[in-house]
Backbone:
């Protein structure tokens, strides 16, 4: 079937102009625009979904060595690390136990940081704050920081995954 025989009425009832090189180019550009939009949306939505729902049932977590117990002291500097592309921070709690949290703020996803001099995780975007256990103590975050599962073997501290969310 030739392009000329595909000449149809448009939704307004007016006949569509005959197919020409111009129309073909326009359709091709439209296709490219649609493809670029779809790829752009995918690139934006995929990481957002991952950050919003980091604990997915069935997700396979890697085991990763993050620190030596001798690197830490109660409510000290702790250790910054990345786990599965998520910025995280490991600290030693006041009671001597260890805890690691995702630094992605549970409000709108800004990156929080551990401030040992005040013993809080601080989010610079809207002044959200979390105590050393990850609980919200100030600002708009709706829930605690996401916690990681740790294993301490001898002096080695391993991260084994994201802890299951409560509630
Ligand atoms: S994004 Fe952290 S307080 Fe708003």
Residues:
């Amino acid at each position: 079937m030739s392009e000329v025989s595909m000449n149809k009425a448009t939704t307004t009832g007016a006949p569509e102009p005959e197919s020409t090189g111009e129309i073909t180019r326009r359709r091709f550009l439209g296709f490219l625009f649609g493809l670029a939009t779809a790829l752009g949306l995918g690139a934006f939505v995929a990481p957002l979904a991952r950050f919003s729902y980091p604990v997915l049932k069935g997700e396979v977590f890697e085991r990763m060595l993050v620190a030596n117990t001798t690197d830490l002291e109660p409510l000290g500097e702790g250790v910054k690390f990345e786990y599965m592309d998520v910025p995280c921070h490991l600290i030693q709690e006041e009671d001597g136990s260890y805890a690691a949290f995702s630094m992605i703020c549970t409000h709108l996803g800004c990156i929080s940081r551990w401030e040992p001099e005040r013993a809080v995780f601080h989010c610079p975007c809207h002044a959200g704050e979390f105590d050393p256990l990850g609980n919200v103590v100030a600002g708009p975050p709706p829930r605690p920081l996401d916690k990681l599962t740790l294993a301490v073997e001898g002096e080695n501290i391993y991260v084994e995954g994201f802890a299951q969310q409560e509630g």
About this structure: Residues 105, 107-108, 110, 123, 125-126, 128, 139-141 surround FE2/S2 (inorganic) cluster (CB under 6 Å). Residues 80 and 89 are 4 Å apart (CA to CA). The longest helix spans residues 21-52.
